[in-house]
Each structure stands twice: as structure tokens, then as C-alpha cells.
Amino acid sequence: MSALTKKLAQLRRRAPAAFRQRPRRSQRNELGWHWAFVTLGIAMLLGAYFWYTSARILEEPVRLHYGPDNPEFTATLGPLLGAEYTRGNDVALLLNGDHFFPPMLRAIREAEKSITLETYIWESGRISDDFIAALSERAQAGVKVHILLDGMGTLKFRDEDRDRLRSAGAEVYKYGRQHWWEIKPDINHRTHRKILVVDGRVGFTGGMCIGDKWLGDADSPDVWRETQVRVEGPAVRQMQAIFASNWLQTTGRLLLGESYFPPFERAGDILAQCFQSGPGEGAQAARMSYMLAIASARRSIDIEHAYFVPDDYAIQMLLEARQRGVRVRVIVPALNDSRFGRAAARSRWDALLANGVEFYFYEPAMLHSKTMAVDDTFITVGSVNFDNRSFSINDEISLNVIDPSLARAHRRMFEHDLEQSRRYTLEEHRARPRYLQLVDKVCGLFRSQL
């Protein structure tokens, strides 16, 4: 026996038993399956917990004997949402960054007294620099500039960019947690609101945040298809009050006086309301708004949403609408920034597809719009996604409008997006590979958190 062979024999005798004897392949496979089942079990338990603990305040089906054009609809929805419908508004739909960034920046540059801005995502980049420059110039000119950001949504917002705003005189705060040592009681709670109000007279809301992915005109997969509204009139006062509510919660200070709430001025003839929704204020107001609008439908429901994850109650309401003969069309993204959310959404569509709800995949860009129109009369646009996170967990804002002319503009927008979308059928849905169906079901267990 050579010296090398002797040495190897000695090392083998000294090695621990676990290293001298490798598990057989069958044992390794059994161990792998064991951990796979443990992981799946944990996922199912967590999913069951999230489902059980999700807010389910609204349980009785809403059934209305009138449509959204009936005065009884607005007379009911206004008080329920804590925001009465007001006439005298002017509202314009703005599609994609090329069409909403210029008027927003122009409004900021023309500000004389105050600018209030609340957003979920702010990412450093080209459009961020444009906003910082415009806001800083106005702050240096003596305009009161108040900015409220979500801590999670600003992870890609550089400290030096925030400091540029503060050094110019703008007040910049993170909602609910300004310093790292301040513990937020509910870390799952976000401000998902998108609000810009200038001089208390002109306001913007919708799904847009400040980031370069919102640039362009939805002409490539690198940019997002988005819908905003520009508002003038009394509904802007409601929008300002919603910002002031979160500003008070974060800073302990009120926004007072004509710089923020100027005397009422009529700007048009549109009937509108702007309402807030969140766990601490207007609990489930967004959910109520959507469900009552669906219950009022007599002819059509057109939904265009980035994240369409209906719960059992919403599915029941949509199925009852179909039973009344209402045509229901839903446009969702073909390109999606969340595979998990997309899988959870698919797990909820079977019954809807089986009962004639039409689904379409928007293909040119990532669809991020959050709109719904009913009977070409009622339109809702805002930060609200059609999912439990928006309906129950996050702070949200939405503008509801009753106006046939704006509804026609929404219909043109919807039909244009429909032309660029691919129909998703029940046959295609049920032909998904079995492994994908299983993945969808497991992800669907967590839908209350999406």
C-alpha cells in the first residue's frame, strides 16, 4: 500500500460518519419532498390566516332598483363615503406621461400660494429631477410646499434628492414614520394615495407616481399605460382635505387658511366627489364605492385595472350584474410587474369567465390604470386597485364622476385600449398547465394581502 493510499484510509477513518456515507439518491429525494410539503403547508396556513383576518365588513349583497344616473344613487353614495357630490367641477382625463406630466409641472410652476403633493412611489431619475426643479423654484419663491411620501415607495428615492427639496424650503415627510427609530404600529399599512393640489384650486389624481417608467405614451414595454384626472372646482377642496388628513397624522399640524382652501369657484358643470379610504378613515369606502356602482349597473361595466383580484363578494356582485344582462368587460395587463399578483388574480377568474365576463390582456405596455365606468354615466378614477389591499389595507383616494360627456371620453379611451388587447377566453384559462393552476391557487391564498 502506497503512502498516499494509507493517508487516505486514515482520513476516511477519522471523518464523521455523515461524511463517510452519502445519502442514497432515494433518501435525498425523500428529503426534498419532505421540505416541499412542509413549505407548502406553511404557505397554506399563512394563506388561511390572511384570509381569516382580512376585513370583511360588507357581507350582505347590495341590490339597487335604480341606475347611477338616478339622483337617489348620488344622494346615497355621498353620505356613505363621507364626501357629498358637488356640481360645478371641470374634469379632464389625461392618458400617459406625455399628456399628464406637462400639465402637472405647469401647474406647479404657476403656483402662487401652496403646493401639496402625496405619492406612493418616488424614484430618482429624469422626471424626478423635473419635479424637484419645479418644486424647489416655487419653494424658494415663498410658495408653501408640502410633500408626503410613503416609506416603502421611496426606497429608490435618493437622500440627496430629498435634501435638495428641503434645502430649497420644501417640507418633505414620510407618512407615519419620519425617522428610523419611530415604530409604525402597522407596517403593512401604506399611503397609496396620489395627490397634487396647487393653490387649493387645481388638483390631479390617478394611478401615476413619480418615476421614469411613467414617461412616454405607452408605446413600449419599458413604460406604463396610465390614467390621471385634472380637476377644478369644489371637488378639489375634498382632495385637499384628504391630503391634510394624512399631513396631520404625520406632522401633528393642520393646514389652515385660504392658501389651501380658497373661496369656492365654479369651474364647470360636472357632478363629482373625491373621497378617501383607509383603515383609520373611511374604512372600506373604496370597496363600498365599487360595489354600489356595480349594483347600479343596468347596461355595462367597463373595468381597466392593473391588479384585478376580486374577492368572493365582488365576484358575486359581478355575477349578479351578468344575470341582469349587464355586459362586463375587464382589461388587465399582459405585461405585469408582479408575477405573484398575476397568479393570485388568475385564481379568481374562473367563475367570471364561465358566466360571460369578457377579459382582455393589454399588450403594448404595462397597464397601470385604475378606472371603472358604469352605464356610460358613472366613472371612477384614482389610486384604488381592484383588490383587498386597496379596499381594506392602504390609504387610497378616488374621484367619482357622474357625467355622460366624460363617460363618452372614457368609452373612447377604453375602446382604444381594447383594440390593442388580446381576448382571454375560458378555454385558454382552463387549458393552463396543471402546475400553473396549482401555483395560482397557492398564490390566491394570499390575495387578502395583495
Structural features, described:
By secondary structure, this protein is an alpha/beta fold. The protein has one domain (62-449): Endonuclease, Chain A, CATH 3.30.870.10. 41% of the residues lie in helices and 20% in strands. The chain has 16 helices and 17 strands. The chain has helices spanning 3-14, 17-20, 25-53, 71-81, 97-109, 126-140, 159-167, 234-251, 285-296, 312-323, 339-346, 350-354, 388-393, 404-419, 426-430, 434-444; strands at 86-95, 114-119, 144-149, 171-174, 195-198, 202-206, 224-225, 227-232, 270-277, 300-305, 327-333, 358-362, 366-367, 370-374, 378-382, 396-402, 421-424. The strands form two sheets. The protein has a 15-stranded mixed sheet with strand order 4-3-2-5-6-8-1-9-16-15-14-10-11-12-17, with helices on both faces. Helix 5 packs parallel to helix 6 (126-140). The longest helix is centred in the N-terminal third of the chain and has 29 residues, at 25-53. The model has no long low-confidence stretch (mean pLDDT 89).
Question: Which secondary structure elements does this structure contain, and how are they paired or packed?
Answer:
Layout: H1 3-14, H2 17-20, H3 25-53, H4 71-81, E1 86-95, H5 97-109, E2 114-119, H6 126-140, E3 144-149, H7 159-167, E4 171-174, E5 195-198, E6 202-206, E7 224-225, E8 227-232, H8 234-251, E9 270-277, H9 285-296, E10 300-305, H10 312-323, E11 327-333, H11 339-346, H12 350-354, E12 358-362, E13 366-367, E14 370-374, E15 378-382, H13 388-393, E16 396-402, H14 404-419, E17 421-424, H15 426-430, H16 434-444
Parallel strand pairs: 2-3, 3-4, 7-13, 10-11, 11-12
Antiparallel strand pairs: 1-8, 1-9, 2-5, 5-6, 6-8, 9-16, 10-14, 12-17, 14-15, 15-16
